[in-house]
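[Automated response] Your request has been received and processed.

Submitted sequence:
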Amino acid sequence: MGAPSMPGGDDPKRYRRTLIMERISQLVGNGSISSYWLHPSRLPVEVVVTLANRHQGIGSALLKRLIRRIPAAASRPLEAACWSDDEASAAFWRKHGFMPIKRTDIGTIDLTSPALVPPPASMLPDEITIYRGDEIAHEDSLWDDIAQLHERVYRANHDWSAVAAIDLATARQIFLDPDDIIPHALLVAIRDGRPFAMASLRSLTDAGYSELGWTCGDRELGEEGRHAADFPVSQCLILARKWGWIVGVEADHSDHVLHGVVKRWPLIDHRVWVNYSRPR
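Generated structure:
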């Protein structure tokens, strides 16, 4: 969750199969299986059966037929997902040999929490300076360093599903999309001229809504990198509260920065999304 769906649908490396199950000209279920260019090591699969037609073997039949249609060249582990409180879906995936591999906390951050206070400057490691995105020139090579930092952190956070190799231009397009970034709500911690940690509010379609995203601390620096990220994260949330914005978050348990946010501040409408996997 949370990653972009580029490149376009005409990319020759993309694979997708969709099946529709009908009974007397009425749709009773559908399923799809596909490849995802950024995480090519697994094939995401979805199966949906209408409520009135469940427990009749339709979902199992769809899954079986989808798997039969996977070309030999595309053979790899399968991936599925559902909400943790969706007992029927979880039971279906487990019945077919899928086991949970990743959990993601999803919700809205409670910006009224007393815990949300301006962080002390002592939270920052020595010789760290905070810059806003609109204080960094568009042509500054620092943007390349920021994109590469994100790529390293994203890769480390997704060791459960190997990330494809991406070049600098693609990393910038993914993590620094100008249609996605809010420059004055992007805070970067800099030391010795290089990004150390950062946090940002990403714009969403509805006015007043944003998401705490592309937030990271340099994992190569261990706890120091994580603590450095606490400062820009807190500042972003304080800005959102000041502007009256609503801030959503999707925090994989493997993401030590965003999952730390969930531990520190309560979430409204908190749910958990679970990814499952099984061999082909």
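Summary generated for your ticket: The chain has two domains: 16-103, 107-274. Residues 223-243 form the longest helix (21 residues).
If you did not submit this request, please reply to this message.
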